[in-house]
Amino acid sequence: MFNFEPSKMNLMSYRSHHCGELRISDVGQKVVLSGWVQKGRDLGGMTFIDLRDRYGITQLVFNMDTDESLCKIARSLGREFVITASGEVTERSNKNPDRPTGEIEINVEDLTVVNPSKTPPFTIEEETDGGEELRMKYRYLDIRRDTIQKKLIFRSKLALETRKYLDSKNFIEVETPFLIKSTPEGARDFVVPSRMNKGEFYALPQSPQTFKQLLMVSGMERYFQIVKCFRDEDLRADRQPEFTQIDCEMAFVDREEVLDTFESLTKHLFRSTLNIELGDFPRLDYNQAIEKYGSDKPDLRFDMPIHNLNQTVKDSGFVVFDSAEYVGGICVPGVADEYSNKDLKKLTEWVQRPQIGAKGLVYAKFQTDGSIKSSVGKFFNDDQLLEWLDRAEGSKGDLLLILAGDKDNSLKQLGALRLEMGKRLGYLDSTEFKPLWVLDFPLLEWDEDTQRFYAMHHPFTAPAAEDIYKMDSPDREVLKNLKANAYDLVINGAEIGGGSIRIHDRKLQARNFKLLGFTAEEAEEQFGFLMGAFEYGAPPHGGIAFGFDRLCAVMNHQNSIRDFIAFPKNNMGRDLMINAPAPIDKEQLKDLGLDLKD
Amino acid sequence: MFNFEPSKMNLMSYRSHHCGELRISDVGQKVVLSGWVQKGRDLGGMTFIDLRDRYGITQLVFNMDTDESLCKIARSLGREFVITASGEVTERSNKNPDRPTGEIEINVEDLTVVNPSKTPPFTIEEETDGGEELRMKYRYLDIRRDTIQKKLIFRSKLALETRKYLDSKNFIEVETPFLIKSTPEGARDFVVPSRMNKGEFYALPQSPQTFKQLLMVSGMERYFQIVKCFRDEDLRADRQPEFTQIDCEMAFVDREEVLDTFESLTKHLFRSTLNIELGDFPRLDYNQAIEKYGSDKPDLRFDMPIHNLNQTVKDSGFVVFDSAEYVGGICVPGVADEYSNKDLKKLTEWVQRPQIGAKGLVYAKFQTDGSIKSSVGKFFNDDQLLEWLDRAEGSKGDLLLILAGDKDNSLKQLGALRLEMGKRLGYLDSTEFKPLWVLDFPLLEWDEDTQRFYAMHHPFTAPAAEDIYKMDSPDREVLKNLKANAYDLVINGAEIGGGSIRIHDRKLQARNFKLLGFTAEEAEEQFGFLMGAFEYGAPPHGGIAFGFDRLCAVMNHQNSIRDFIAFPKNNMGRDLMINAPAPIDKEQLKDLGLDLKD
Questions:
Q1: Where are the alpha helices (DSSP H) in A38-185?
Q2: Does B449 share its domain with B580?
Q3: What's the CA gap between B402 and B356, in Å, rounded?
Q4: A152 CB within 8 Å of a chain B CB
Q5: Residue span of the structural domain in which B239 resides
Q6: Which residues contact B42 (CB under 8 A, 6 or more apart)?
Q7: Mean pLDDT over residues A263-287, rounded?
Q8: Fewest CB within a 10 Å sphere: which of A7, A536, B160, B463?
Q9: How many Cα atoms within 13 Å fall on the side-chain side of residue A391?
Q10: Full-model pTM
Q11: C-alpha A560, offset from chain centre
């Protein structure tokens, strides 16, 4: 029997089983399967078709001898045709141990072509031949690939586990509004013109920060939300204009309780989705992290720490070191012999690229034969170089790499060099997970261009209790060193979450706004509703937000978040599939009270 | 001991227990509680304070004899002050059986005022004295009221139960994009100007309709999402510019499987959150619903159906009936004696209001003493009137109310009258739940103003299989009667969900766009990506979307959705708390390539 007319399909069921379900114990059953033609092959008088759905692949078999016309139709099916087939489950003579359904096949008796398919622009297989642009344009076909589908299913599971866990801890998911008010602070808002209030605009939230704090004032006590946030900024390779956060807030807590709660959440997520037990998370101060790893999000899958060599290398007459604010180095284990002068020249060029920005690279190779080769051999003798090695906790066979310059930049450059060397040594291929908390971030960041302070986290972050009295200091250096009660969760070098204990006192909030260069009027105009709320019995509170897209990627050892997003945008913020953004018509602009500027 | 300095709080924990937790079995324990001062009262040498948090209320007690200074501080606390108190759990002599913690109190030894409070602009109690405007402006205080907090907690629970259930049925939650493309079809889009693509706009989704269909083409098979949607239209009293849907789609299904799946979901939600077992949902055709209840979302908490009286009342020389396309009536049970002429005059005025729009009302009172009084007694004798009563399945004591006119409007008016009479009789106070499916909606709606058809559901709804061949008819009446494979879920007169089997065939979709007045170019321009997707093996699919805000309200027998939304907007689309929308500065407009029109 062969049907083509879609309307006839109403008379039958599309499936009795999924394509990943049937086993040897089902032999003899009459079944109906639906799905996509993965591929077909003809073998003498037989035709085999791999039928695919979300759950797996099952082999269909057609026999020229039994039903020639049906077999011919089977031979005419192209890849990605949608079909419904019914027949009997039989044991395969030629079993496929790589497939859960590999012991059986379906002897097809009825076949319906539900929908034919043009030849897809790229192959629908784990590894595809489609380029990025093509895959994005035909994203609906790209998602049909098992590798993308699995990532979206993982994301769904991770979100559900997050919700179940937080619910079990008495957190309430509250939806905060998407149409809110634009604030000049922070990265740029997407705005939404209001038709009913012409000349006025909503903004899309960069985060629900003020709303979750208001929910604490409301006595909700434990809030969370898995929520889309929006940021209209120039997109780096792996950022998206819309992204998802696990946003959380708790009242009547101190830092310990917040860290404890979300460390437990993180452990639960790894356990429930990956069956991985994470140990207790180590903690680093922000200053420690910078001094030791040149980064506030160090990758601890390998150590290779930065060593401050100031005490060791200075005052020997080498002007590059003597004139530098800071000299530091990393000891790359076991590569002294293999790094040629040419390799080291290339590495020097690497650190000199504008993205890194070092002036030069000093090296010392402590070869296994005992000889030492150094780019500064003219200025330092072997004993001195061995002293460096000792200071850097290295040993024979190691390569010592040294940068000098102002402290902040040198540490950043050494952090980048450390990561590069870790990558070359294969340390980043590790499938381990190394979470850590980074604590005690600075409260403020000085911006040279605008000659003012910005909030390192956001303006609602509480200063460390012991630093509050310093907030009125006229000394910029004192202010630069103010500590915030802020923390980040880092896994494998990626910032997964960040949060803080918040200010809950109107006066303290006002002092903080003043530090950030707000006049009292500006503070009132923009955040008056929050400061007003603090006057009506605001409880102490704090929270955290996880970057959900990034968490999905890191948990799967993927560098890019894109394939964990069903319909991502490209670097120009464009959806290539639906072709958005796009012009709108004049009538609509007029309704909104807007004109396009030429 | 008394502390005031917030920074000292870091040294102690805010609570060992919640305010709803302690029982007689805890007597003797030392505990720490934090929360808000609900109220205080002084009784001789004692001061009692009701301390409130999200979990309950616990009584604190202070004794002038034991610690005079502490007791004086307790007496100075105002309502909504945030405090932390520690002390011993003791048995109350004067127990309060209405409160779970009513058998104990805390003998306070230490007290910290964490944050004082100004006097709130309205009382923080179950019933408040605050008006709508004031409550919205201070929404963070409004939410502190138990009645609002419970509604938000119910919403959170309902969302989680939805997710758990759909996950158990193999549905995957996929986040679809918020920054999409504007389409001229349907209600109005909110648009978002793109800074990176000047002169171009994104739109916020009115629903993820096309994306969920693309996910079916992608082979996700079972998709859901609890998702914000946006509609920029003039707001009726109980609409919001942003609202939440439970959005679902399934592949390889027919209508039965969709109805079955989401009837089961609905039953699960009632069972898991309200402990209510719903029986199987009755079904009505759209036409039946209109003819019997004058509405496509009939409230079945009471019957009082509409009866077509055409056969019964016509051709008796009464011109109002004889000239009418339709005469119909409802029989209001047991009120004949109590409705005076004055009452009936008022009821006539009620149906004549522009919102209802009837020309007049004909009545017949079948009084319990056997006498009959009718507004058309001059034209019809008692036998005739008794025949009407018989036709309307009424009996002695009933009041028969009759409207005449064109059929569509008369049925609508009778539907409104039926609801009004049900309300007067107290039928709408019933705490019962009466769900039903309304099936077989028309595919198209004719619009007299624009002289064109619009899609009754949306342009992607499949016509009933048996009506497909009629789609090319030139006869407008034939087209008006085309049935769609569409369905609504109605509970207690509210539309809770609506969906359809979709078109999955490019040619059929093109024919439907043509019916809706799209040129081939317009269809391609706006929905080319979807029609293109249909050419690559699109499976048959269908789905449903539930209005989540409305579902929350209906499940709690509330008429308004507002208190189930944490931060709702008013009828002008304005958030009174944060004062949005608001003007943005010139610099930002310039960046977006926009000018305000004067």
A1: 68-76, 132-137, 139-142, 146-168
A2: yes
A3: 14
A4: yes
A5: 149-284+435-586
A6: B48, B75
A7: 97
A8: A7
A9: 21
A10: 0.95
A11: 7
